[in-house]
Each structure stands twice: as structure tokens, then as C-alpha cells.
Amino acid sequence: MERTVLVFTAILIGAAVAFVVFKLLKKRRLPSLVEFDNITLHIRVPKMQFEKHTELQAAPLAAEQLFSSLHGLLREDAGEQEHVSFEIAATKDGISFYCTVPKHIRGFVESQIYAQYPDAQITESGDFADSSVPSFSRSGHFILSKDLMFPIKTFRDFEVDPLAAITSALSNVADKEEVWLQFLVRPIPDGWQEAGYDYIKIITEGTKAVTLSLKEIIKDAFSEILSIVFVEVPKRVVANEPPPLPVPKPLSGAPKLSSDKELELEAIGNKLSKMGFEVEIKIAAFAQDRDRLENIIRGVTASFRQFSTSSLNSLKSADWGDDLMKIKDDFKKRTLHTDKIALLNTEELASIFHLPSSKVDTPNISWTLASRGEPPLNLPTENCTYFGVTTFRDKKVKFGIRNDNADRDRHMYLVGKTGTGKSTIFKNMIIQDMRKGFGVGVIDPHGELVDFVLNNVSDDRVEDVVLFDPSDYQYPVSLNMLECADPSQKNLMASGLLAAFSKQFGYSWGPRLEYLLNNAILTMLDVPGTTMLGITRLFADKNYQNYIVHKVKDPIIKEYWNKEFRDMKGNQSLITESLSPIQNKVGRFLSASTMRNILGQRNSTINLQDIMNNKKILLVNLSKGKIGEDNAYLLGSLLVSRLFFEVVQRVNMPEEERQPFYLYIDEFQNFASDSFADILSEARKYRFVLHLTHQYTAQLSEPIQNAIFGNVGTIVALTLGAQDAAVLAPEFAPVFEENDLITLEKFHFYVKLMIDAMTSAPFSGASLPPPSKEEYTNNKDKVIDASRRKYGTNYLEVEAKIKAWIERPFDLGMAIAEEHREKKAMETQQPAEEGEIRLNPKRLDTRV
């Protein structure tokens, strides 16, 4: 019976030894990452991510938590165990951090990185190992100099972030030089600590000499097992002897340990208390010559000596090679060589690799330029006019403002520096609105946006376009700003025109000037068929003034001219001081033939009401380079005021019949008077939707700023200057800070989006690319020809009418005679011949 037991025992022990050997051999057959179909991720973090944390170890602590989470990837079968490669690459473009993972665990690894670094930006990138590098190259490994149970120095032992020394060495890389570091990490089960615990027990209990090393302990244990299996067991079987009773080894008594030895055991115990990873640390350097290569290698390897302690462990470099192809192939495959690994716990691993923070003040690190924010759950993705894609955690979802509810009616405001992508957003939205058949208006002070739109008008909308281009000298359109069909609206129209003038007069504007110009505008509005050309003539030509005043029906206005203005003219210095700004500003504006030919025609060829109600496309090209800056701004201001005047006339229209009209104004501050605040607050009711953009907030008066932030539903901020960031930061807090607004990348933005009548929390996005030239419809010439045919008039005809009006004398007698003819015509029910309208029915119409 005893013999049977001994045989059975021997078989069990042999099987156990064979199983251990098999597992060890299997464990060494590790696949490279390339066999797992890997992907390389570029990881960037904001420099100030841990700024609110006062402790130095915030960044490595986050990495320690990350590695603890990644230990969850541990598999029962070591042969199937994946490993992950954390990497640092220093090139001429800076120092970048990467993570290469098998695709099937990408989601898990990303989620754990985000859990510890919420503001990280992770994007797919090309493999830096595929890049072209100089011919002089060297690669090597870092391994532990002592047994695995002895720890290296960790971040808790440093007064500065240990990553700073490594990145500082990498920052010395010059053009056409590169350094790559790979940290291949693979979780292992907890059995690795047993030998270390045995060592501690032996030292503290004194069962062996305190100088006994781990290798000696393992060697003795293995020899004893072999002796039992292959010597004692067979011997007892053959001799049919019972096994001897175990005889305890005599204890030598617990020795008194030195303080250094106690610290050593405490450090070993701390290492053994945490989860472990097999880690292969690779380095490769490339340079133009061998001396430079040696200097780079020396600097980087020296930075790893900071983890060394004389009594514990250290990282030493080994296995250097210089075969360029082998180096690149090995780094690309990311093969984990089990004969070159160091066994590190999570704290040690976090010490040699973690993502940087503001505590690492090394230049050329690839930081995130700005934070990214999470989009709302109810992000509009259907029935939209799209203008961007989300960027949070590299998940790109196209979104926009809904067209099937009232979200767009609350207007849209964009602000950002020149060249940051404001026009790109406008281009995408305008094209979509045109293709959907909406009414669209564009006011462009540069001409480039209008030119783009002209080239993207679809065939079915060519006839819908009304092109307002003052620089088209040969075929000017007509827009009589004093044309008013409803006499009850005269004061409203005069108020809008006055606000437009006040915007352009600047410092010369005052109460007296405003009073004079207001009375002049009301006077001209009271006489049908007049134009803005009459304003300056009203002050300069006494006979024309008498002619017009006699036709005025409003007694207050008539009294002003017959008494108040006549008394004012008795004070020559006062009248000169008051009238000079009008003649200088208005006179100079109307003296330009391009302005005169548009505003001086009696009958408008452009009907703004018709454009808005019938969903047409109004393109206003106010290119400053063609018509002059002052003229562009004043004409634009007048046009905006006229548009709003026409909008409020929709009050008489049933609400369900009010077609939405989407007006896009680039650099709107040039056309926005203080009355613009009224437009923002009132336009929504009339389905007049504004899309406004400009460069910086100082361009706006305080009333307009308040109106924008109080009335606009969707606010988009692109890259801003420091002053503007301070103004806009409260709108995007607490998700984003001032520095985020300053460091936004080109074509990226932060947005507060109107969704279902509620403003969303701020989130980040990037603008959609505009159509390429290959997608253009190239209907520009067709549109121009169609618009000229419908709304333009040959300039020779226009100038002839204006010339006849300028040269024609007016006086009081003519007004009286016309009045007499009008009365007589009414008595006979025949149309009267008005002196200002026609000299003779057979002659040219002189009232332009």
C-alpha cells in the first residue's frame, strides 16, 4: 500500500513539474502585436490638465491607476495574452506620445485612458516606425540589474516629475534625427511575488544567511524538488521503506537587521504588494553621423539612471545593435522578447511612462491645443442645416440646426479671428439652404463669399437669384431708399435710415445733426417719387427747398422749414457747422457714380418684400476693394435698415404664411447700428433669421453685445484673442476656459446650440469642408446674365435721367403750377403731369 502511495505521489509530482515546464515554455511563445492587427493611437493631453492638483505626483498617479485597470486584460492562458505598447517618439515635429494596441481591445484601452485623463485627445495616426530615418542607427533595451523582486526608484521618491528628465533628453533631437522609446507591457498573474515573500521570510526569521540571494533560494528549492522526485521517491519505492518523518530545520534565531536592510525589505514588500507587468523597454536612435548618434544615446540612457538606487535595483542598457532594417522591423512589429523583459509593478511602470503635465516643462511636447466638450444627447442629426462634426474623443458625428422647428429663428452668431473658419461654416449652410429651396440673403463686404455662392447655384435656382453688385457699373440695379407705399410707416423708415447714417458719421454725429437729417428724410418721404439725391439738394438749393416744402403735407415738417430752419439760417456759423457734416458725408457718398446710379433712380427694380416672401436668393456684393470702404459700409447699413423695414411689414401677414428668410452677414459690425438690437429681438417673430459673423467683440457697441448674448440662440466661437476670450468665457463656462478659446485649432469651434427651444451646454466641433471646385455648378455667368436682365438698367439710360434731374431748375412757382394741374386733373379724373416727374410726356423722365 505504501509502495502504491509512493508511486502515485511520484506520478503527481512529475506531472506537476511537467505542467510547470510546459506553461513556462508556452509563456515564452509570445506573438507580436502585428499578429493581432494593431492600431497606433496618438495621445495628447492639455498641459494644464492637473493644474488644480498641487501634488507633484498627479500625472504618474493617474498612470498608475491606468495600468491597474489594464491589468484587467489578464488571461488565464498566457499564450493568448495580448500586450500593449506605450511609446514616445521625438522627431523634428516635437515629442509625441502613442499607444499601439490590438484592434479588438482598442475600445477598452481608450476608455481607461479617458477615465484617468478625461481631457485627453486620442486619434488614429500613422505608425512613426514607417517614417524615413537617417542611415546611422542604434537600438537597445533596458533591463533590471538585479533580481526582479528588488524595486527601482519610483515617482514617490522624486522631488520633480521623473518624466521631465527623459523628455529633456529627447528635446535635444535636431532636424533629421529621431529617437523612439517603446514600453511593451503585459500583465502577469500574482504568482510572481512568492519568491520575494520567501526571501523576506528567510531574512526576517533567520533560516538562511542574510546574504542569500534570490537566485540561491530558487536554486536550492529546485534542487530539493529534483532530489525528492528523482532520488528519494525511487529509493523508497525500491527499498519498500516508508518515507521518513519531516525533520524541522533548526532555527538560528531571528537576527537583528540593520536599518538599511529593513528599508530594503520594506521596499521589496511595497513592490510585491502591487500588480505586476512584464515590461520590455526598447530604445532606438537615428542621426546623420555616428558621433551625433552616440551623443543622443548617451543622453537618453543617462536619463534612465535616475531610477537607480545602490541598495535596490536599477535599469541598465543592453543588447545594442545597429542594423537599420532589423531595428525598424522590430519596432514596427512590437514583438515582446521574454528574455529581455523587466518585471515591474504598476507604480514602477507609471514612473518610467506616464503622460506629461505642466510639471514637465520641456519644450516641443505635443500638447492638446484646446479642450473638447461632449455633445448633448439630443444633438440634431436629421432635418438640419449642417455646419459641423463633433470632436469629443475623436467621435465625428455630423450635426446642425434643425429646420423643422423654430430653433433657427433664434439666430446664429459666430466670432473668431480672421482665417479661423467662419466663412467655411457660412458656405456650407448657404449652399444647403439654397438646395433646399429656402429664401437666402448674403451680405458680403469682401466679395469672395458671394463669388463662391454664384459658382454653386444649382440650375433650378438660377432664375431665383437677385444680384446686388454696385461694382457692376454697366447695369446698375435700383433701390430707392425713400420709396414708401404706406405713409403711416414714414417715421419707422426714417428711423432706420437715420440709424444707418449715425453709424457712419462717427464722432461728427450729434443731436443737432441728427435733428436736421431726420427732418430732411421725413420731408423727402412726404413727397412721393423723391430719392436720396434730394437730401443734399434740399439744403444747398433754396429753390428746390421751396419746391419740395410746398408739396409737403405734414404741417409739423412744413412749419420746421418755414420758421425754424429759416431762423437758423440767420446764424451763418451755426448753419455751416450743422450742415457741413451732411454735405461732407452724404454728399460724398452720393457723388460716387456707383452709389448715385443705384440710389438715385425713382423706381426700385429690386423688391425686397418679393424676395423674402417668394424664397428668392439675394446676393449683395459690397466689395470694399471695388466701391470703397466707406461706401460699402454705408450702403450695407442702409440696405440692412431697409430689409428690416420690409420685414416688419409682415405684421399684416398671417403667421403661417411668413416664409423663413435666412440672411447671412459677414463682418456685420460694419452694418449694425445701435438699432440692430431691435432687429435681433423683433426679427424672430417675422421668420427673418440672422446669421452674423465678425472678428472680435471690441467691434461691437455695448448695446449690440448685450442684444446678441440676450437674443441669439446659437453662439459659435472660433479661435479668439485674449481680450475676446475674457468676454466670451462666461458664455462657455464651466465646460471651457479662456485659454481653450485662445488655443482652438483652425476650423475648430465651441458652440452653444439651440435645440428644441433650449440652449445646449457648450461642446466642441469642427467645421465641415466646403465643396471642392470639382463640385461647383459653375453657373456664375448664367446667374449674372439672368439678374442683369431682370433687375439691371443700362447705365447710359440711368445717367441720362439723373443728369436731367440735376440740371433742371425747381422753384415755388413750379410747385404751385403742378398743384393746380393736379387739382384740375382730379376734377376731370385725368392723370396730372408732375413737373418733377416729367417735363413732357414725350420727353425723358427726369424725376429719376
Automatic annotation (TrEMBL):
What are the residue boundaries of the TraD/TraG TraM recognition site domain, all occurrences included?
Answer: 660-723
All residue ranges annotated as the Helicase HerA central domain in the record? 399-624
Q: Which residues form the DUF8128 domain?
A: 61-368
Q: Which CDD domains match?
A: TrwB_TraG_TraD_VirD4
The record's section on InterPro entries has: DUF8128, HerA_central, P-loop_NTPase, T4SS_component, TraG-D_C
Region spans: Disordered: 821-848
Q: Note the Gene3D superfamilies from the entry.
A: P-loop containing nucleotide triphosphate hydrolases
* Composition bias, Basic and acidic residues: 835-848
PANTHER family from the UniProt entry = AAA+ ATPASE DOMAIN-CONTAINING PROTEIN, UNCHARACTERIZED PROTEIN YJGR-RELATED
Listed name of the protein? Uncharacterized protein
Species this chain originates from: candidate division WWE3 bacterium CG09_land_8_20_14_0_10_39_24
Q: What is the lineage of its organism?
A: Bacteria, Katanobacteria
